[in-house]
Amino acid sequence: MDITVLSPEELTPAQTALWQRLLEGDPENANPFLAPGYTQAVAALRPCARTAVIRDGPETLGFFPFERHHLGAGKPIGWGFNDCQGLIHRPDLRLNAHDLLAACELATWDFDHLTARQPVLDPGTQLHAVSPAIRLGGGWSGYLDHLHARSPAFLRKTRAKTRKLQQREGELEFRYDDAPEALDTLIRWKTAQFRARGYRDHFARPFTGALLRALLLARTGGCTGLLSTLYCAGRPVACQYSLLSRQVQALWFTAYDPDYASYSPGVLLNLSITQAAAARGIRLIDMGRGEDPTKQALKTTDLTVGQGQLRRGHARAAAIRGGSAAYRSVVALTANHPRLRSAALRTAHAVDTLRPN
């Protein structure tokens, strides 16, 4: 087994094409966050981005996108902005995680959204979480039948809000947007939402907006940014930024005009997105990890993602592991104390604005 570590821009067209074929050959893992285009977009903004190419003789068996940070601390590509992580590989790959980390010069590799069927990486999993999703095998009509059966009250309330919004404010229109000002609107709303709730503002760092803009222009590499907007009487009331592959749409950032909050415009937009996705042949919508009530009402299934850390076991890994453990302890201690949690998140936000991209 031979493992070569490259900067993502060093991958040949043949290698990226093989990566894409491996991804599409496993429909359950054909997520745009795992696509070569996502890795290459991140690499253009983060010099720490790397890709391990795994070979056995002349055969390429897999690709491992990652970031190498201080002291050999490894992270998934696009760390902090990646909702599906893992190794893209042939089913017959047999590899020891220790050998992979050693070849990548990593002491540890942290993850928080490890996808399913990852025999090389899964030994590091410490926790499992659910990621609500919508399967669209039955098309839009099949999905509506599911909502009628599973969430009838939710569907009735949503339709009532739709009628009320149209009667009071004007006609609704859903469309895909690629205008820069549409993305600016989403970022402005989302920033205000983060700060109002005491959450870390992801858009305080230039990396985030730059990545979204780059992916919105991408047309190759199996990963395209998709901005969907719901308009009412010509005015934008909700925006959603997704990543799109041939078979999977991964919802990423949703925001709405707070003046329309009583109409649940984000929910109305999600239903429009689902209808449009079914029409274009999308097989799965991944709504992202979490127990949000809206996701629970809209979902047809749950995907399972892993959280944990792989390590090589030497002193450097122990130092990194100590820092990770301290962070997890802070999260656990503040989980049931909203005021303390809010203060901690504001501090983290202030520190983030001082960090390099």
UniProtKB/TrEMBL annotation:
GO molecular function: transferase activity
Alphabetically ordered keywords of this record: Transferase
BioF2-like acetyltransferase domain mapped to chain residues: 155-295
Protein name per its UniProtKB record: CelD/BcsL family acetyltransferase involved in cellulose biosynthesis
Species of origin: Kitasatospora viridis
Pfam entry (one): Acetyltransf_6
Gene3D superfamilies registered for this protein in UniProt: 3.40.630.30
Signal peptide extent: none
